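C-alpha cells help. Our protein:
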Amino acid sequence: MPHLSPQEGTVKVCIATYDIIGPVRNGGIGTANSELARSLVAAGHHVTVLYLLGTYCEDGTISEWVADYRRRGITLVPLPPSKVQLGGPYSAVVSMRAYEWLRASDFDVVHFHDWRGAGFFSVYGRRSGHSLANTRIVVTAHSPILWHKYNNYELLTDPEDIRTDYLERESVRLADELVSPSNYMIDWMRHQGWRLPERVTVRQNVFHNRTREARPLSISGTLQVDEIVFFGRLEVRKGLRLFCDAIDRAEISRPVKVTFLGKTSTVDGAPSTSYIAARASRWNLEYQVITNKDQSAALDYLAEPGRLAVIASLAENSPYTVLECLASGIPFLASAVGGIPELIAPDSHLASLFEPTANSLAIKLAQVLGQGAQLAKFAVHPSEVEQETLIAHESRNTSIVWPDFPEDDPFVSVCLIHFERPRYLDYALKSLSEQDYTNFEVILVDDGSSSEDAVKYLATVTTRYPQLQLKVIRQDNKYLGAARNAAASEASGDWLLFMDDDNAAKPYEISTFIRVAQRTGADIVVCQLDVFRGDEAEHYPPTCDHRALMTGGPVSLGAIRNCFGDANSLVRRKTFDAVGGFTEDYGLGHEDWEFFSTAALQGAVTWIIPDALFWYRQSNLGMLKSTEETANLQRNIRPYLSAVPPSLQPLVLLAQGQGLKGSILDESFLQVSLAYRIAKRFDRFPRTKRLLKRFGNKLVN
C-alpha cells in the first residue's frame, strides 16, 4: 500500500517526462502530462513534474516556466545532472538520473511514459527492494520507439534503438500498473511480445473540455469549409504523404486554401517543408506551412470559421489532436486507425472517419467541400475520464506488496582471479575483508604468475587475511576463461561471485547481490560499474572517475555490444553448470560477454541492479589492452552463430560488423563522452579542461 501524505486524501505525485507543455511547444506526451498535472492539482494533490530534458526549452527559459508552473500550483523540476559522471547511451543516462533523483524523494505515485524507457532503472530499483519501496510506479503507453519507426517507414539503423526498445519493454513489464489510453495499443504490445504487468488499465487521457463560441450552421446543420488544414507533425506517420496524394486526387471545383499546421520533420531524409513545396507545385491551390504555433495558438487558428482539420495518420494511439477538435467544436476528418475510433462516438464515425487511403480521403474531402462538415461527438466525455483518473489516484490499495527477503544467508563462493598484480590483489582482498556479509569463501586462482613479488605475496596471502575463508589455487597460465572455471570447480557455494584482482568490492556488494537474487529469483545478477583509473593501488576506497551504465540486456543487442554487464557478477551455480561455464580460449578476452550471451539465449534470467556495487579499474595493465579486439569480437559472437542455421550465420556476422562500424571500442567497452576523457589529460590547463568537461557533460549528463 502506498505511503499517504499526512493530509488525509492528499497524494504526492511525480510526473517524470521528456515532454511538458511550455518548455516543449506542443506534443501528445506533453499535453497528456500537462492535463494530468492540472487535474490532480485541482483535486488538491501535490504534483511535481520532473522534466527530463533539463533546461532545454523551445520557447522561453526554464526559469520562466518554473515560475509559470508554480503559479498554477505545480512544481516543475528540471532534471539535475548526476553527482557522478555517467557513461552510457542517452536513454540509459536519463533513466539513471531520474532514478537517482526519485530515490532521494518521497512520492506516493510516479508516472512515466513508455517512450525511451525513462522508468527503466526506477522500476528495477523498486523491484530489487532497496529503493522506492512505498512508491507506486505507473507507466503510460504512448508511442514506443519501434512502433514509431515502423509506422513512419524508418529503417532501424542505430543499434542503440534496440536498447531503447528494451528499456521501454522492461519499464512496462516491471511497473506496478500500465495505463493505456486505447485498447489498440495494448493489443499492439501483446502482438509484439511485450510482457505486461498484472495490472493493466485502459483509460483515455485526461483532457480539459474547452468550450468555444459555437460556429453558425447552415440550414442542413453543417459547417461550410473554405480551408483544409493538415493538423499534426509534418511526417509520414502523421499522414503527410497520404494527405498530399489525396489533394492530388480530390475533385476541388472552387477556390480552397490548403494549410499544413504542425512541427516540421523529415521525409525521406529531407526537410518536410521541401517535400510539401514539391508536392504543392502541382496544385492549382493556395497553400501555406505553419510550424511555429504552440498548442493553444494552433487550436485558435483551427477554430476560425471555414477551417477543416484533417488528421490523416497512418498509425495512432490516442491522439490529442482528435480530442482537441472534439472539445473545441472544430470540424475534422480523421483516419480510422489505431485508437482514433475509440475517441469518437459511434454515430459520428460515418461523417468523421475515413479509411487510411488517398482515395478514401479524396472522396471525403469532396463531400465536405460540397455538402459541409459535421461536428463529431465524444465517445466518453472528458469529465468522466477525469473522474476515473482522480479515483485511481485516491485509491489507497494500489501498490503491489512484495514478499519479504528470505532470512537465510546462502553460502557464496567468490571466484577471484589473479595474474602478476599482487598490489592490485591486496586491494581486492582488503575490500572483501570489509564485507557486511560473512557467509562466503574466497577461491583465489593464480593464473601462472612467476614474478618474485607475486610469488612472495601468494605464499603469505592466507596469513594476511585470516578472517577470510581463503583457498589458493596455482596453475599454469591458461587465461581468464580457464581460470574462472578452475575457481568454480573448487567452489562450495550455491552462488558464484566472479571477481578480478584489479577490481574492489564495496562493503555491501555480496549482501546486495544475494538479497536481490533471492527477491527476484534471477539466475544472474549484474550491476553498474564505478570506474576509477590508475596502474598503482592508491587510497581505499578509490575516487570514482565515472559510472558506466549496464542494462542487463537485451539479448539481441548482445550480438553487437556487451549490454549485459561485467564479469564481476553473481551467478547461480545451477545456471553456471547448465551454460557449461566459460570457454577457455587462450589469449582472448570477452569470455564474460560470451557467457552472458549464451545464458540469455538459453533462457536464463539476468537482473540488473541500478546501483554500483564495486569499483572497476581502468589501467594500462588491463587484460583487454593486451588482446586483439577483432579476435575478441569473434569470440563473443559464437553463441549467436550457434543459435541460427548456417544459412543465416553470414547475416549475424553482417549485423555485428554493421553495428560496430564507426563505434569507438575503447578499453572495457565503456561508452564515455570523448570530450570528458580528453579533459582528464588537461590537468595542467584548467581553463581548457573546464571547457571540455562542460561540453562532455552536455553530451553525456
In short: Residues 23 and 60 are 7 Å apart (CA to CA).
